[in-house]
Design a protein that fits this description.
By secondary structure, the protein is of the alpha+beta class. It has a single domain, classed as Alpha-Beta Complex (Peptide Deformylase). It contains three helices and seven strands. A five-stranded antiparallel β-sheet has the order 1-2-3-6-7. Strands 4-5 form a two-stranded antiparallel ribbon. It is globular and about 45 Å long. It starts with 25 loop residues before the first helix and ends in a 14-residue tail after the last helix. The model has no long low-confidence stretch (mean pLDDT 95). The chain binds zinc ion. Zinc ion binds next to α2.
Length: 178
C-alpha cells in the first residue's frame, strides 16, 4: 500500500495526454492499488493515473456511497453521449478547494478494459456519467476548470491562480456530489 502525491494545476504533467495500457501485469495492479489508497486518503470519488504523475490510461471511480458503483476502467473510450445534458457541481483532487458547475451529457456509454484486459462496456447516467467524463478528460490532458463557461470560471479564477502557484485557495470548498 502506498499513498502517492497528487499533482495539481501547478504541474504541467496534468495537461499531457496519457498512453494506452497494453500490459495487464502486476505493475498495473500495483498502480491501481496505489491509486485507490491515494484517492481514499483524500476522500475523493475518482482519480486518473496522471494525477499521481503516471501517464497511463487508467481511471478509478468509487461512487458506492451515492448508490452507484466502484470500478477500474482501463483505456476507456466514450462511445455514446446523450444530447440531454446535466448541469452540476464538480471538484478535483488536482484543483484542491475549488468547486464549480458545468454541463455534461446526462447519459453516456463507455468501452473499456478491466485489469485483466477483457473488453467491456458500461452505461452511466447522472453522477456516474459526470465522474467517468471528468476522469476520461484527465487522461486526455484536460481539467474541468478549463471547460467552465465564462461566468462560472470568473467565480473561481482567483482560486485557480492560487492553486497554480502551489498555494491553498482562500475560500477552500469541497464538492457536494449528488
Ligand atoms: Zn479531477
Amino acid at each position: 500500500m502506498a499513498i502517492r502525491k497528487i499533482i495539481t494545476l501547478a504541474d504541467s504533467v496534468l495537461y499531457r495526454e496519457s498512453e494506452k495500457v497494453d500490459k495487464f501485469n502486476s505493475e498495473l495492479r500495483d498502480l491501481i492499488r496505489d491509486m485507490f489508497d491515494t484517492m481514499y486518503d483524500e476522500s475523493g470519488v475518482g482519480l486518473a493515473a496522471v494525477q499521481i504523475g503516471v501517464l497511463k490510461r487508467v481511471i478509478i471511480i468509487d461512487l458506492e456511497h451515492s448508490g452507484f458503483i466502484k470500478g477500474v476502467f482501463i483505456n476507456p473510450e466514450v462511445v455514446f453521449t446523450s444530447s440531454e445534458m446535466q448541469f452540476g457541481e464538480e471538484g478535483c483532487l488536482s484543483v484542491p478547494g475549488v468547486t464549480a458547475n458545468l454541463s455534461r451529457p446526462k447519459h453516456i456509454r463507455v468501452a473499456y478494459q478491466n485489469m485483466f484486459g477483457e473488453r467491456l462496456e458500461i452505461e452511466g447516467s447522472d453522477l456516474l456519467a459526470r465522474a467517468l467524463l471528468h476522469e476520461i478528460d484527465h487522461i486526455n490532458g484536460k481539467v474541468f476548470v478549463d471547460q467552465l463557461e465564462f461566468e462560472e470560471r470568473q467565480k473561481v479564477e482567483n482560486d485557480i491562480q492560487e492553486v497554480k502557484k502551489g498555494r491553498r485557495p482562500e475560500h477552500f470548498r469541497k464538492p457536494n456530489y449528488r
